[in-house]
Amino acid sequence: SAASSAAVSHAGALARRFHSELTLLHVNEFLVVHPLSGPLGFGITSWEALSAEHLEARQKQLEEFGATELQGVEVKRMIRGGDPAKVIAACAREQHSDLVLMPTRGEGAFRRFLFGSVTAKVLHDAECPVWTGVHLAEPPPYTPDDIRHVMCAVDFGPRTPEVLHWAAALAADFQATLTAVHVGLGTPPGLSAQSAFEWHEQAHSGAEEQLRAAVLDADVQADLLVTADGGVPQALAAAAREKGAGLLVIGRSSGGAASKGLGRRTYAIVCGAACP
What is the pLDDT, as a whole number, of residue 135? Predict the structure, then answer.
């Protein structure tokens, strides 16, 4: 697809920069054939024959896919069958992958509720970082080599140091500026204008001190930004646009509805961000 072609361009740029092996994985979902004539219809007498013919065609497509974008990159191509999200997460574990890169289609919430999202499931299940973004649905105007500003969202959870270290290492490699951003709490309803102003000032000051302490504890160099809560996904998207971030790094959680922090909003952040 066009989205995968754009993703392959990103993957090739990253692989060349980090001298990495790249695995192209295509997951073939279960085919349903309605019987019209013969056991399987259309004169097909064997499910194995149909499956083999289909996989042969897919393998040929995969062998030719990304040839131009991946020149000079060591590439392994794999076809697997089954549920795409489960197979992607399992293959990443088997291959000891350092990064999964895949596009996000970013359909509306109702469609995601009905059909689910492969990317959302991979974000939940994968043990390694996942590089994604709805911008990949169309050819991006730049490659990872053009990233000059990395933004890292911080929610003060237990994995904050790990997320900051990962963002700082990537920013250093790209010789990019790093900004640590925290989305503050919204103003409680019912306050007078004066009280709301005082509450906001105190909350902002406290969050800034906590953010400074988190960055110092992680021993990384980063600019600090505390933004008001207009909803976390919306606030992070606005901050990334305002600062011209080329990459937004966030933590993610596999917890349920009771989980706190950025994790429960991961997919909304991905679909709202204007950058990877």
Answer: 59
pLDDT digits (tens, 9 = 90+) for 28-79: 875 544 444 445 555 555 667 777 777 888 888 999 999 888 989 999 999 9
pLDDT tens digits along 94-123: 999 999 999 876 555 544 544 457 888 888
And the tokens for 109? 């919430």
**Distances in Å between the alpha carbon of 216 and those of 172, 213, 261, 262, 269?**
17, 5, 20, 21, 26
In SS3 terms, the chain reads as CHHHHHHHHHHHHHHHHHCCCEEEEEEECCCCCCCCCCCCCCCCCCHHHHHHHHHHHHHHHHHHCCCCCCCCCCEEEEEEECCHHHHHHHHHHHCCCCCEECCCCCCCHHHHHHHCCHHHHHHHHCCCCEECCHHHHCCCCCCHHHCCEEEEECCCCCCHHHHHHHHHHHHHHCCCEEEEEEECCCCCCCCCHHHHHHHHHHHHHHHHHHHHHHHHHHCCCCEEEEECCCCHHHHHHHHHHHHCCCEEECCCCCCCCCCCHHHHHHHHHHHHCCCC
Spatial contact of 23 and 64, defined as CB atoms under 8 Å apart? no
At residue 198, φ and ψ (nearest 5 deg) are: -65, -40
The string of pLDDT tens digits covering residues 212-267 is: 999 999 999 999 999 976 788 999 999 999 999 999 999 986 554 444 445 667 88
Q: State the Cα–Cα distance between residues 261 and 258, nearest whole angstrom.
A: 10
Helix (H, G, I), strand (E, B), or coil: what is residue 228?
coil
* Residue 145 DSSP code: G
